[in-house]
Design goal:
There is one protein chain. The chain is of the alpha+beta class. The protein has a single domain, classed as Mannose-Binding Protein A, subunit A (Mannose-Binding Protein A, Chain A, Roll). The protein contains three helices and eleven strands; from the N terminus they run αβββαβαβββββββ. Strands 2, 3, 4, 5, 6, 7, 8, 9 and 10 form a nine-stranded mixed sheet that branches. A two-stranded antiparallel ribbon has the order 1-11. The protein starts with a helix and ends with a strand.
Amino acid sequence: MGANWISFAVILTVLASTIADCPNGFLQHDTSCYKFFHSTRATWAEAMMYCQVFKSHLAVIESEREQNFIEGLLRREYHRGLPDGCWIDGTDALVEGEWMWTTTGKNIMKEDYQKWYPGEPNSVRNTGEDCMDLLHHENYNWNDESCEVQNNFLCETSANTETIIG
C-alpha cells in the first residue's frame, strides 16, 4: 500500500494547481495583488478611500522580499512628471513617533521589517509628517510626509486563490 499511496500523492500533486486571481489591473506577488495608481494624485486619506473603492487598501510592506517587488513595480511604472512620493499604509497620526499599519492596526516595531531612508522618520520642523510614502529619488525608501501632499499611491489586496483538481 505504501507505493500506491506515494503514486497517488504524486499524481494528485501534478493534477492539483493553485489558481490565484487578481482584480483587473492589479499585479500579483505571492498572496497579494498590487496596483500603482500613477495617473491619480491624492492626499493620504483620499488615497486610502480610493483603494477602498477597489476593494483594497494602501500597501503594507512586511518583508524585504515584498519591498523588493514593490520597488521593481514602481521603477517600471514611474515616469517623468509624477510626484516623487507614493503613499503606502503607514502612519503615526495617533501617537507621534509610533508608526503603525492602519489596515492591520499593527505597530511597526524595531524588530519588524523597516526600510526608512537614513534620518527618517524626522517630522521636519514638527510640521505633522504623519503619513508614510516611498520616495522615488531615494530608491523607494520609506519617508514620513505631510498627509495633505498630493501623491500617487499603491493599493494592495489579497489574491483570490482556489485549488483546482482535475
